[in-house]
Please model this.
Amino acid sequence: MRYSLFTLARQALSGHKGWRPAWRDAEPAEAYDIVIVGGGGHGLATAHYLSRNHGITRVAVVEKGWIGGGNAGRNTTIIRSNYGLPGNEAFYEWSMKLWEGLEQELNYNTMVSQRGIVNLYHSDAQRDAYARRGNAMILHGADAEMLDRDAVRRMAPFLDFDNARFPIMGGLLQSRAGTARHDAVVWGYARAASAHGVDIIQNCEVIGFLRDNSGAITGVETTRGPIRAGKVGLAVAGHSSRVAALADIRLPIESHALQAFVSEGLKPTIPGVITFGAGHFYVSQSDKGGLVFGGDIDGYNSYAQRGNLPVVEDVCEGGMALMPMIGRARILRSWGGIVDMTMDGSPIIDRAPVEGLYLNAGWCYGGFKATPASGWCFAHLLATGKPHETAAAFRLDRFASGYLIDEKGAGAQPNLH
Model:
């Protein structure tokens, strides 16, 4: 069923009794050409592009819970491509271009809202760093604009410009950035992939891998029985290291909880996405009026999808330092996602060191915004055996060869990226 005004009107006249499920909740078959482990945005986007771009439809997406129940449903929904290093910028700009046409491509309202993002700077050195990043963005075809203090004030007059410790001197603006509806992205990709014949199998946890005599991966062992596959792709976000360990692979990844928060509904206030340059705080406003904000990851490793009060306090302090007006707003709810932090803060899209297994992991803070390009490039790798040109830098062996993509310059300490 194609969604349109005509379809909506026809369903309204029939009492909305003709709507069908958006995707098939399939039973596992004995074998597929490709099995993708992980029914989040990346896994489902990969399945969609495998069928759409490469004509491969004997594909299964296996998910241990319900689709979109992991990190896809536990983030702050920001989309942007404001990176500075060549290995990252070209990839995220490709993702931004895919976001811009996603609703038409999927025939699904993913609520992409290009309301802009501004990264505030608070010192001369930070201004210079943002100017370099903006120039790198423009060289890769992205949009970037340096704003002075007055321009930022016109955009967001409620900010604390004269903060004694962190005065706001200006910002780096990307107008094409913004937000998207996270669960709609999952549902849109699931619907499109299912329409191409992809099997989406929920409540099917992978508990091991099938191997041949040479040790190559030939399928997955699940809680619903074995499933054979020509290739297996992992797209399990914060649980990448745990699932890879089932194939005797130790990834250069640490998993940490990342908390996010939503306030009570307020009148329209925040014009776009604003990030605090003197602390790790970022905020936008949902269509329902709630302020959606987050900060740093927890400082210790964990697979628990819950946070802790010291980080809550730190995030709220960052918000108060940036815009004291939110001090009386009440937090309505919070959640924690698990981010898989690599040693250089950049992702991995590559073959695993075990034949038949492919990796899509290490997304750190950048997983949601990367969803379309991640699926596009992972599908290309699975279908052709070669890395896509925009993801060629995301090799697993860069941690051994030294070709790191350290966007933040923090060194080999994952929790600092």
Observations:
- The radius of gyration is 21 Å.
- The first helix runs from residue 5 to 13.
- The chain has eleven helices and 18 strands.
